[in-house]
Amino acid sequence: MFFKYPDIPSGSLSQDREARAKFLGERLPRSKTVDIQNRQVTLELVDNGELVVGDVAHSGFTVYFGGFDWVTFPTPQHVLQKFPQFLPLPQPAYDDDGLL
Predict the structure, then answer these.
(1) Alpha-carbon distance values, 51 to 27, 61, 88 (Å)
(2) Quick one: residue 60, left, alpha or beta (phi over 0 = left, psi -120 to 50 = alpha)?
(3) What's the pTM?
């Protein structure tokens, strides 16, 4: 099943996968980019040197957990900068009188 971190319903993943999702969710923003091949990105966690492979898309950074479990995390900012097509589009600013 596909889940979007941190909105993973309790009990929908096994305990070890739920703990892994929490672990990655806390550490991916501080990771380092190791390799990029198309949309597949390998990141290194700075805490322990572990390599994490995921796919970058508009929805985020998706990591395969095994079986039928995939978890999509917010794309780390340093990865998003390498994929300008996935950056949010600028929104016009308005004040009380209309456009700024």
Answers:
(1) 12, 14, 27
(2) left
(3) 0.84
CA 33 and chain centroid, separation? 13
**pLDDT tens across the length of the chain (100 residues):** 899 999 999 999 999 999 999 999 999 999 999 999 999 999 999 989 999 999 999 999 999 999 999 999 999 999 999 998 887 777 777 766 665 5
Count of H-run helices and E-run strands, the chain: 2, 8
**Torsions phi, psi of 52, nearest 5?**
-125, 125
Residues across the chain? 100
Question: Is the separation of the CB atoms in 60 and 72 below 8 Å?
Answer: yes
Residues 77/83/86/92 CA torsion (nearest 10 deg):
80
